[in-house]
Amino acid sequence: MTDRARLRDALSQVHQDELVALTRDLVRIPSVVKPGDPDGNEAAVAAFVERWLAKEGFAVDVQEVARCRPNVVAWLGEPRNGRSLLLEGHTDVVTEGDPAAWSRPAFGGDIDAGRIWGRGAADMKGGLAAAMIAAAAIKRSGAPVGGRLVVGALVDEEGDMLGVRHFAGTPLGRALTAAIICEPEQNELCLEQRGVVWARVTLRGRMAHGAMPEAGANPLAAAGTLVRHAPRLEQRLRRLCRRSRHLKPPTVTPTVVRGPVDGLPQANVIPATAEVVLDVRLTPGPDAQTITAEIDAVCRTVADAHRGVTVDWRPINGFRSATEVSRSEPLVRSMVAAVKTATGRRPVFGGVPGSTDGTILRETLGIPIVTCGPGHRLIPHQVDEYVEIQELVDAARIYTVSALKYLEG
Ligand SMILES: [Zn+2]
Fold first, then answer.
1. Are 58 and 138 in contact (CB under 8 A)?
2. How far apart are CA 68 and CA 46, in angstroms?
3. Mean of the pLDDT values across residues 324-337?
4. How far does the centroid of ligand 1 lie from the alpha carbon of residue 388, in Å?
């Protein structure tokens, strides 16, 4: 059979009705993670995904990452030609917030105006459904797959990314040679993702009476100085990081200022400690050491300006570097061709403003990742989240052709 006929056969197995139904089924299983609530996690949606993939005849592995928080991983074929491709989605969603703020039920999966509505429709049960349908289409078509195709429905992307961290350490994870991250990026091919460091800065001074500040050392005043220095740090990082056509330049945003860190705040007490969190976003270029040195330098400046106050910082949840992948990577070349075949359009390149599970895969496994999935880039975490059905179908078609082309080797 010719290559083109194989692609056509596989694409003929991507059915819009089935994809829409699967997306709605996934949206209707709430998977907002609520620590302390035994039902507030990904377990129910993971069980649904597991049953669906097993029914399609995939080998399926369920890996309990934390209590009642399982990764579901299915695969097809063996990496005989040295290639193993992951189609990656996460099963958790962020909170719907105030249900009354929604114009449609947050977990209803309603269809209206060519869109599926609900929390997770775009971020990212739609992308996960498209990945599942693409893998099933390839399997049903009987097209020989040169390497191994893996579908991963992982937990906790919106939290600490426990799911992908766990998966990257398993034999299936370690054998990966490339990954498509099915996050909502309007089906653009995103070869770059911004990095992030949440710098938790702890300022320690000396407790004293508010009427006699000279007897203490006020960490809150130092916290103020630190916040005032944020724009200067931002400027420095903008000079150090590379400019990108697809990513916004680095930003340094204070997101938490609090003091005292422990104990009761009191109007007439200078607290012993204060805390500032800086949300630092990065573009590719400098390594972690360089960024660390810049943040260290700001902390020293603040400490020098406030006698008796010490200033330390630690990254919350580690250091996630910006990622970039070259256009010459086989995965990228396969996807460029796939977008044309699957949609008849030329690919649009883009960049991811935040980090994703792909950041962890890129960092721990060193494999190329491309983020590409259905859904408007700005819609995640908003009320009235939706995904365009046409984008959903395009995504499933792009994944199908990308996987076949890449795994051919
Ligand atoms: Zn997401």
1. no
2. 10
3. 97
4. 16
Q: How many Cβ atoms are within 10 Å of 266's Cβ, its own excluded?
A: 10
CB 200 within 8 A of CB 316: yes
Å from CA of 90 to ligand 1 middle: 7
Tens digit of each residue's pLDDT (9 = 90 or more) over 87-109: 999 999 999 999 999 999 999 99
- Report the alpha-carbon distance of residue 222 to residue 25 in Å, rounded: 51
Please report the pLDDT score of residue 96 as a whole number: 95
Are 282 and 322 in contact, with CB atoms under 8 Å apart?
yes
Residue 214 above 80 pLDDT?
yes
N-terminal to C-terminal alpha carbon distance within the chain: 17
* Packing angle of the helix pair 126-141, 3-11 (nearest 10 deg): 130
Give the pLDDT score at 113.
96
Query: Residue 255: left if φ>0, alpha if ψ -120 to 50, beta else—which one?
Result: alpha
CB 322 within 8 A of CB 193: yes
Local structure of 49: helix, strand or coil: helix
Give the contacts of 348 (CB within 8 A, at least 6 positions apart). 186, 187, 188, 189
What's the CA-to-centroid distance between 240 and ligand 1, angstroms?
28
Total residue length of the chain: 409
Distance from Cα 124 to the centre of ligand 1, integer Å: 5
Q: How many whole angstroms from 123 Cα to the centroid of ligand 1?
A: 4
Distances from the Cα of 362 to the Cαs of 293, 329, 358, in angstroms? 23, 14, 6
Q: What's the token pair of residue 15?
A: 């059915």
